[in-house]
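Quick one, T. Sequence first:
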Amino acid sequence: MSDQRMRDLGFTEKYIQEASRYEGLYLGRVIAQYKDLYKVATAETELLAEISGKLRYASEEISDYPAVGDFVLLDREDSQAGNAIIHRILPRKSAFVRKAAGTAHEVQVVAANIDTVFICMSLNRDFNLRRLERYLSIAWDSGALPVIVLTKADIGGDLAAKLAEIRETAAGVDILVTSSLTADGCQAVLPYIRPGQTVAFLGSSGVGKSTLINRLLGEEIMATREIRQDDKGRHATTRRELFLIPAGGAVIDTPGMRELGVESADLGRTFTDIEELAGRCRFQDCRHAQEPGCAVRKAVAEGLISEERLLSYQKLKKEARYEGLNSRQIEKEKITEMFAGFGGVKNARDFAKAKNKKR
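Structure tokens:
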């Protein structure tokens, strides 16, 4: 494997030094994930691998298993003697997670060690600021740097007005505009993709992610599918996989955003304006509803923040709290929230009893 290929896979000096601490093990990176196997790229080749019994036993949660993008330590560098064995996963610098199927609390890592995530949103009927807020919250929480990519600019209508709305919603986040339909449609993202770094594209199905990835790779590797007439979209791809970009770097194709929840969304980075105002509210536990002295409600009344943005913030905050809970646990959380003003359910009961005695 060439030095260029190793660099594009992200085999930095940091990971090489980390791997050297474990005698008899070799550095690799997971580039594809199957049901019980992983495809791993090493300094020599690509090979299939499975996790060791010890690693499986030590994994307390599903998120402790390898994921596409993980740097791992293997017992061999080639497949001449059969499948390799993964003995260790090196610390992740970023991770995108979703609720694991069939579980109440556990999360599964769907992609790891991503440096930059391009949040794609088409400028036609897919344009939705509330959805963008959700994407940004998940992206910030992952540890990757978000960049907004607006696709289908050739059919998107009033571009200037939409750009103004996005800048207000995503303060400080770079915004790129591309058609994604022409041969040079990916030129806008190239300056953000450097050798040795890994990127990913997120967004609703059909907005042009696969087309952009195909442009970067120079061939039709990813299946593409246009948005349906009803604009609901479909999954164009289902398997997560890492590809090397000819110009340098790597890209991880991830599943549709509907598979990613807000288990631990970073709302503070996406809603900086609301979080800062919340610190000025009279009450620390202000819910920004009808409480007196609410700085957030005052900002809404003065037109500094839209009612829709506040509702989106409250919705995502509640969703992040309830994500992964079963129906009984969610009901308990709701009851606790209802009686928060009384200091809890028990105090509410005591208050009701005292009130009834006075009658």
